[in-house]
Amino acid sequence: MYNIKMVSKMLEMPAVTIRAWENRYQVVTPKRSESGHRLYTDQDIEDLRWLKRQVEERGMTISQAVQLLKKKREEETLVPESPSFEGISETLHQSLLSFDTGKANAVLDLAFSMFHYEQVFYRVLAPLMHRIGQEWEDGVVSVAQEHFASNLITQRFMQFFRVFPTHPQLPKVLALCPSGEHHQLGLLLFTLFLRKNGVDVIYLGTNTPNEGLAQVIEGNDVSVVAVSLSHGKHFPVVSELVAELSVKFPKLRFVIGGQGVEDKELPDDLRPWAVSGDVHEWQNWYQQEMV
Questions:
Q1: How far is it, in rounded angstroms, from Cα 150 to Cα 158?
Q2: So what's the pLDDT on residue 78?
Q3: Would you say 129 and 149 are in contact if contact means Cβ atoms under 8 Å apart?
Q4: Which of 142, 164, 193, 251 sits between 20 and 30 A of 288, alpha carbons compared?
Q5: More confident residue, 25 or 229
Q6: Distance CA 238, CA 233 (A)
Q7: Mutual angle of helices 4-11 and 42-57, in 10-degree steps
Q8: Which positions ≥6 away from 154 have C-beta within 8 Å?
Q9: Which residues contact 7 (CB under 8 A, 6 or more apart)?
């Protein structure tokens, strides 16, 4: 701990300036000795030195420098000093469940600035969506918390969908989860894979009824329908969907994925279209069916 006289000498700053910055901007909060004298920590000195440098070297006003310091502190508290995918995921998990949109988006911005976008999606967002979905099923988180988290993360996927250019010569894909299916993680990841490879995808998302799909396919020259299902209970709906659309569009192709395709009871009529969640298998499918 250092008294103000020593701090003034170390920083080559008048004590009156230090007291003014402290009182007006609350940039540091020194402790007090038993006799009432100010005592500054090493962190206080580092903060004051940083502010002094912004004012003298960058020409900022002290109020501008203080705002920048506050922002710097907020960013430093978002994730651990040595950020890991697990640390980012945990911080994001906490902010999502507390409905803190600002912090959640700040954590995501930071994650995308530090890591490749595919690493963020596959090692942070995908496991996190799975975790929150399981916590919702177990009654650990509320419906509102699950919806908030799912919607915010889905928005991030959508932002990236728009980033990649599409190649008109490639077949157009319609992506959906069947009626009654509310888990879209697999569909989001598969759509991200397609968009990265230049495929134009019409994303319909969860709980999509069969009605009206024929008009979408015909009106948009769709060549492939991608369906994601998480459970075998959706087999009848998907089988009906494939049968109806195959009659109307004999050349239409399908690709069916998600946890449901791992089920040993997958119906024979769906097996020719099934693709596992392995990215290498996605790549093989893409080379065979899309190029």
A1: 12
A2: 59
A3: yes
A4: 164
A5: 229
A6: 10
A7: 40
A8: 184, 188, 205
A9: 13, 15, 18, 40, 44, 45, 48
Round to whole Å and give the CA distance between 263 and 244: 23
Measured CA angle at 105 (ends 102, 107), to 5 deg: 105
* Alpha helices per DSSP H over 172-234: 185-196, 213-219
55: its two tokens:
């004012």
Q: What is the pLDDT of residues 251-284, one digit of tens each?
A: 999 999 998 888 778 899 999 999 988 889 999 9
pTM given for the model? 0.70
The Cα 145–Cα 136 span in angstroms is 8
- DSSP string of 45-91? HHHHHHHHHHHHHS---HHHHHHHHHHHHHHHTTS-SS--HHHHHHH
* Mean pLDDT across 110-118: 86
Q: Residue 148: left (phi > 0), alpha (psi -120 to 50), or beta?
A: alpha
- The conformational region for residue 36 under phi > 0 = left, psi -120 to 50 = alpha, else beta, is left
Return all residues near 268 (Cβ < 8 A) that are at least 6 apart.
none
Categorize the per-residue pLDDT at 77 as very low, low, confident or very high, splitting at 50, 70 and 90.
low
Q: Report whether 47 contacts 28 (CB < 8 A).
A: yes
- Name the helix (H) or strand (E) containing 135: helix 126-137
Q: Give the residue carrying structure tokens 């928005």.
A: 155
Contact 137, 81 (CB under 8 A): no
